[in-house]
Amino acid sequence: MDIQKINQIFADTAYIRTGGSGNLGASNAWITLGKKYFFIIMFFDIGKAWLAGGIAWMLCPGEEVMGYVAALAAILGHIFPFYLNFKGGKGLASYGGMVCLLSPWLQAFYLIFGFALTQIFSHSWVMPFMIALSFPFVIWFNTKSVAITAVVVVASIVILIMHWSNMVKAF
């Protein structure tokens, strides 16, 4: 049983694939299931990348880059789940789990600032672009690690590609 079917059972509402954008992510959950389920799904989407990174750090002490590699794997698994014919969400909330590896406070800032920008500009693409374009710089200034920064740049490029169509539609 996959997560979207569980959502349908508990939400007693539309199957998430049939409404909104048809994606499995938290944003589409807001559209199809409402705010309550958006926050639940966002929590789990953030948590899976953060947890993957934390486990990697426990298994590979002293290898900080491995936490970011594991978070990247979680992001890619969210976007391209093999058990759903490689059609998942767009990865932004899972990317937030990668941000949480550096600082949960930074993630909170990104959420607040990103939601504010989205409201100001009335476009959903603003938040992912703001986060994906700024986080590689933040990670570099905090870690000075080429390897970690490279992993974050790859994740950022994936997020930008996944949200590119939202920006194109806005213009």
Reading the helices and strands in chain order gives HHHHHHHH
Number of helices: 8
Q: Over all CA atoms, what is the radius of gyration? A: 16 Å
Gap from first CA to last CA: 39 Å
Low confidence ranges: none
Q: Outline, from the CA principal axes?
A: globular
Largest sheet: none
Average pLDDT level: 88
The helix-and-strand class reads: mainly alpha
Percent in strands:
under 5%
Total number of β-strand segments? 0
Give an account of the 3D structure.
With 171 residues, this protein is mostly helical. The chain has helices spanning 3-11, 26-33, 35-59, 64-79, 92-102, 104-121, 126-143, 146-170. 36% of the residues are buried. The model has no long low-confidence stretch (mean pLDDT 88).
